[in-house]
């Protein structure tokens, strides 16, 4: 323990400064309350009592503002941070004991007229998603917000809904589903609009706090503090859009987003990211065969071509299956040509009915709009000859420097539109196809 100098040290403990016994933790219901008491009653090597929040922050390598948030219970630390506090303050496990008790205290007050929301669509049928669902559970068990991320068509919403249905018994105070519309064709909801949406679903009376984000966030915390509720925010577009709703004590939060939102995983929220992996060929084949039926089983070679073209994207597999089902008079070889040829993304778009939530082409379009014009130019030029390319190729075709090109590709990677493999960059093949046929979707 480093030598510390208190700003205004006390020379002798008062009654309130008496070191806390481990058993006393049972009567203290929040981590923040107990953290503050241990900090203020800490016995310093120089005989003085108490640490400032700045001093504790220095000891555990966190910011002063993080400590203050934790003590107010306005944000929840990671379990690792809680353990560091426990060790630094010689709490002998008491802080961790309270931290691990995620259930609300018996006397926790639930705000008057607060509903227990359970407005969830029917659980979707998923294939081969067990591992990702387990990863979400593991991340949520840390108490930190979970960011479920993946590119267009990866199945984020379906996975989030399936996991939410599995978690109903663990969250008796309800499941609150909010649609942020971060990558929709309509404008994204603002933080204030999302807060109003949450409060309207929790209360029989509309909020009268206008569009003051801080006031709305305070009202939401008052209603949800230490309630065993699951908050699902679907299709988040930015940190600013959702950050006022994060870190509510006792509330489990799952966010889906095409963007990795790295500021949340690096900031004091300590969010845990779970990235959806591509569907492996065997699982994709099983999914398509399950939907299409015997016709698929009788044409293994053609199905294999279609699955390769779908490149592990669940939404593409579903659209391919719909294309096959709606063209029963067309032979399988011809259907495979449709779904692997130059206009395959258009066939998938038409099979999806051009619907915002089921068209991969629209998904790519809305993601590309969030990128800067230079990044869009790099993707367009780099994929001219295919979906795999080097940094030198991309720089050559755009005339940009390697440094600028690398920065553009890094921006595209945050939307899962580019992946790095050894010395090579790779876009989803269907994205490359869309980039060079998208004029067909502009009319």
Automatic annotation (TrEMBL):
Name the segments for region: Disordered: 1-22
Q: Name one Pfam family in it.
A: HTH_31
Q: Where is the HTH cro/C1-type domain?
A: 50-96
Which CDD domains does its entry note? HTH_XRE
Fetch the InterPro entries from UniProt. AAA+_ATPase, AAA_22, Cro/C1-type_HTH, Lambda_DNA-bd_dom_sf, P-loop_NTPase
Which named protein is this? NB-ARC domain-containing protein
Give the organism the record lists: Saccharopolyspora griseoalba
